[in-house]
Amino acid sequence: MAAVAKVGIISCSGEELPAGTISRLATRRVLESLRPQSTVTLCLPLFLAGEEQERRFARQHPTITVDGCDKLCAKRGTETYSGQVACSLNLAEILGERLTGCHRSQRDSGKADEQAVWMAAERIAAEVDELLAAAPPPTLVSLEASTVGCACSRPSAEGALQVDGKTVVINGLPLIFDRLHRKGVEPGNGCADQLLETVRIYHAIEPGEEGAYREALVASYQEFCGRRASDEATPA
Amino acid sequence: MQDAAHTNQVLLIPCSGIGKVHGLISREAVYKATDILGPDQADTVCLALLVTGDPQTRQKVQEQSCITLDGCPKLCAQKNVELSGGKVGQAVRVYDTLKRHRGGKFGSPTALTEEGWGVVDEIAAEVAQTVRAAATR
Questions:
Q1: How far apart are the C-alpha atoms of A235 and B125, rounded to whole Å?
Q2: Widest pairwise Cα distance in chain A
Q3: Distance between CA atoms of B54 and A11, rounded to whole angstroms?
Q4: How many other C-beta atoms can be found within 10 angstroms of the C-beta atom of residue A25?
Q5: Most B CBs within 10 Å, among A29, A43, A53, A65, to test the B interface
Q6: Contact (CB, 8 A) for A125 and A31
Q7: A190 and A134 in contact (C-beta within 8 Å)?
Q8: What is the pLDDT of residue B25?
Q9: Residues in chain A within 8 Å Cβ distance of B109
Q10: Span B101-129, pLDDT tens digits
Q11: Looking at CA atoms only, how far is residue B79 from chain A in angstroms?
Q12: How many CB atoms lie within 10 A of CB A16?
């Protein structure tokens, strides 16, 4: 598979401050609209609450941290638990007085918030472009290798499932399978309940559809595990 | 030193989830609950400050009751509070609440639908009730 360049963006969580909300929204705007093909993210607290795969994030991706205040939690947290950051942005410096009219709850969000998000997002996107221009593609991680455990690390992968003859798209299905596989969950009817309950968190399943979903998920997971076994048996 | 006025204040700590609507619901529920309860009864702290080991924030979570609101099964808020020596009095899991609204369209990681705001209000009311019940014991 060809290498796909991805820049990591870690936003401060900043739940106490409007700037935290602006940093998250700006990060999402870059991920969803401005540079969707070349950026990934991860929740900052996952460095502690997650596993080694999450902690490898900044070593796998040239990473931009986006902080809302001078405490620079995103930068410090990333460098302490993951790796050196390639670029650190502090929205308190970039936006200055513009932040005074912003809100932490989106219930109260207005024009000032929207303008701040746009300015911050444009700045992040410009830094992404600079990093991509500076980094030779072979040093960047491939899309396949970047599948860390958290669903936040990239645009959600979708998985198609045949349920009762209908194609149903389940957001994040490959990630769910990957996680269960890594946890050592064996394919077969024994994992049906676990599959169903996990998928149900992200995808609505009506009570009358449970049987069909159960059957489809078991078959699809079996196929996924078979492919994994085959990949693992193939020399690099 | 702990401010005496804050000894009965409960810390409501949401996850920092940025990838799904669940994280946004957890944060907005915290903002709503703190509005309902007022600053004497509730406050919040940045989860990232716990991740970076900020001494004041660690002291706060160690000395005050905490309620965590997590969006996904990774339970970042609960785990980080516990790793910081805090005691989680109640661990709210947004995805459990969403199970009561199967088939609902709650919004995206950046914007909530009316139904999403309804879930926010529901969780906030439950949290506020828990805090008030604890205060009267």
A1: 56
A2: 59
A3: 17
A4: 24
A5: A43
A6: no
A7: no
A8: 96
A9: 28
A10: 988 999 999 999 999 999 999 999 999 99
A11: 6
A12: 18
Q: How confident is the model at residue B54 (pLDDT cuts 50, 70, 90)?
A: very high
pLDDT tens string A183-203: 788 888 888 888 888 887 767
- What the block records as the tokens of A216 is 């489809």
Q: Which helix (H) or strand (E) holds B11?
A: strand B10-14
Tell me the average pLDDT across B43-53.
90
Look at the pTM and tell me if it is higher than 0.90. no
B36 part of contact set with chain A, CB < 8 Å: no
The span from the CA of B49 to the CA of A130, in Å, is: 29
End-to-end CA distance of chain A: 12
Among B90, B102, B115, B73, which Cα is nearest to B30's?
B90
- As a residue count, chain A comes to 236
Cβ-nearest to A11 among B18, B27, B45: B18
Which residues fall within 8 angstroms of residue A126, CB to CB, at 6 or more apart?
Answer: none
Ranges of chain A whose pLDDT falls below 50: 1-4, 137-157, 234-236
Spatial distance between the Cα atoms of A64 and A95, rounded to a whole number of angstroms: 17
Question: Shortest CA distance to B44 belongs to which of B61, B23, B25, B56?
Answer: B61
Q: Are A65 and A88 in contact (CB under 8 A)?
A: yes
